[in-house]
Prior knowledge:
The chain has 468 residues and is of the alpha/beta class. It is globular and about 70 Å long. Helix 8 (219-239) packs parallel to helix 9 (263-273). The two termini are 26 Å apart. It folds into 2 domains: 19-378, Glycosidases (TIM Barrel, Alpha-Beta Barrel), CATH 3.20.20.80; 382-467, Immunoglobulin-like. 48% of the residues are buried. 27% of the residues lie in helices and 19% in strands.
Amino acid sequence: MKKTILTALVIGCGLIGTAAQDGIVNGVHGYTPKSYVHPTDPLIKERLEWFMDQKLALMMHFGLYSVGGIRESWPLSDEDGHKWSRSDVDWTKDDEAFKKWYIDLIGKFDPVRLNPDVWAKEAADCGFRYFIFTTKHHDGFCLFDSKYSDYKSTSPRCPFSDDPRADIVRTVFDAFRAKDIPVVAYFSKPDWHHDDYWEDCGLGYKTTRMPSYSVEKNPERWNRFREYTRNQIMEIVKNYGRIEALWLDGGQVQRRYGLDIKIEEIIAEARKVQPWLISVDRTARGQCENIITPEQTVPKTPIAVPWESCVTMGKFWGFHYDEMYKSSDELIRLLVDVVAKGGNLALNVTPQPDGRLPREAVARMRKLGEWLKVNGEAIYSTRPLPPYRKGDWAFTRNRFTGEMYAVRLVKDGEVLEGKQIIPDVKPSKLIHVATGKEFSAAVTDEGVSVELPAGFASESAAEVFKLK
């Protein structure tokens, strides 16, 4: 049996652990390839190969925090709020008043212009291959009709509850599947609205991201919370159609920190319903972290396990009224950088409080989609090709056809013409994918040299060449 390119990376290059980072800085999780546990189930291994073919996901954080235009959930933790997550809360310094205000946002959540059909059409047109959506963030507010919580979009306390779209997860998942875009369920393991995690929803004491009581001294309370978590996860996998992956956030809830929810048992039970289910138990290490998820960062070198950088289009995961988005050129270069190192890009675009996608974000998605329509063959279904990333060049190889690609990243304002050195490859000619033009390549000590004619430069942030 032929080894996959991923396996070749592990054996030939010894890349596992070369970019390893662990810990959390300002809410940003690192990545832990050194501790990756390779799945043994043939179906899960097959689905991970499928996952690595997709390359680009649309990710969405949507919830109560969208109403206030503040950071998602984290301001509820006094410890995190004082350090970083309340930097955009300038109307009060009173912890209790703030937490009560946030909790009561359920009475103001009313996305009357929610139209997931439009979201899905934009995603399909712009080249996104799968969709990650927040079913529940750390604040405990469910966008699905959980029978185990009354803190949800279908609760009578929520003005949106009378709307036929009130079970938002169902509405959204159905819309994306109708456009043949597979769905991934984001789910927060911590739930700061549940009494067996935070007593009284955190009101009346100083909160941290950890439970409000000693789990070791109160095992019965933790067992209740563990069962609650299991019940909600099983609701999602049983009642909301096919899900490709369960994206579990809240890395503090794990065995290493004394917060064991027996995730292996939960995933095993979930796979009895959906045997293909990929488990993304973020930062927890072990057999349920099938995918490594660097957050707001791209590794400096390839990671030789399945991975996905989750990155915001702007600065924040949740909606902010004064958001500043990355340019479409930045997004194209970001995608190329991620893919050349063997990863996927989960690009977070958050809806407005009324449910619409911000126009500026959509405009950037469309520019990215236009580039992918021309150059997607160098992105989708590819694996890393040595030398991966070097200087202004990135390299990929299609795992089905064997076609090899060199992508020239173009800086803002740069004129791309004249002599170009493509490092560490030896093709005899190059074919410019966008135009079909062929260029002869001369071998040099550094790789090959190609002469691009005057006026070659386009407005693209990345020019793709097929290597022959």
